[in-house]
TrEMBL record:
<dbReference type="InterPro" id="IPR050627">
    <property type="entry name" value="Nitroreductase/BluB"/>
</dbReference>
<dbReference type="GO" id="GO:0016491">
    <property type="term" value="F:oxidoreductase activity"/>
</dbReference>
<keyword id="KW-0285">Flavoprotein</keyword>
<protein>
    <submittedName>
        <fullName>Nitroreductase</fullName>
    </submittedName>
</protein>
<keyword id="KW-0560">Oxidoreductase</keyword>
<keyword id="KW-0288">FMN</keyword>
<dbReference type="InterPro" id="IPR000415">
    <property type="entry name" value="Nitroreductase-like"/>
</dbReference>
Amino acid sequence: MSEVKQALVQAADAARFAPSIHNTQPWRWVVRADRLELFAVAERQLRAHDPDARMLLVSCGAALHHAQVALDAEGWSHTVDRPASLTPDAPLAVLTPGEQRPAEASATRHLQMLQVRRTDRRTVSEEEVPESVLDELVKATEQAGAGLHVLGRDQVLDLAVAVERAQAAEAADDRAAAELATWVGGERPEGTGIPSSALPAEVPLTTVAERDFQTAGTVAAGEGHDRSATYAVLYGTGDAEADWLRAGESLSRLWLAATEHAVSLLPFSGPVEIPFTREALRRMLGGTGVPYLAIRLGLQDPAHAAPPHTPRLPATQVIEIADEEKP
């Protein structure tokens, strides 16, 4: 196997650890001699919660960014082709490596953050995230092509109402409840979904309610009320499929930056999944942006050990290594 192709295999393998909606991992990679192709896997789309595949695209975008981080850490320059309009059976994006040169220290650090990043649903520290750190997180998001609108106190209460209304709407949907039961709880030996070991044993006391997964986990929720948490909205200017893919890349960039600053990041997709609550988020942005996700940020409680990684599908199920192409 050529050096370039080996680097692409390693990038696809690193992308397996990207965050995804309910840990569905709805992506598939094809490694070719000179490029890496990213495909969506429709079978792992949440049809009830995500009928328009917005969260599927966000998830795939996070995987795409993870692959880029892996290439950067090995010093490979690269270009990304993201088709403006997506067609069935065509790649969502194509990564093409260029020249290899010594990797920058920041690229190596980003890869380390990729390996330790977690989704932590427990309460956070009583200490607030410093303004200087929030500024760095906003900057990291903007560098990835999106925006991060930090909510004021009144807007946090508006977000709490929107989340509550979204949860009520989904709780009344039998299809959504059945879908949730399919992907959440238990030991998850098949390599997807959220196991009980990654869920709080009781509902954490928070200003903005976390998603009700309708099942208890095994992790202590933590003490306190999360009054020190910061809430924000990840947003952009477009609502096309390619924009949601880029939103996932921005989320990944933000999450790695947060991890580097010992900041816990918890995404809220619920209010984006319901049209009328998505519009409520849009109003928080002054009607000038498209909301992609609501986000909780908080300093990690030093008394908490890191939660376990959620399971991952084996590489053989998500990575196809194509035969060397003939000239």
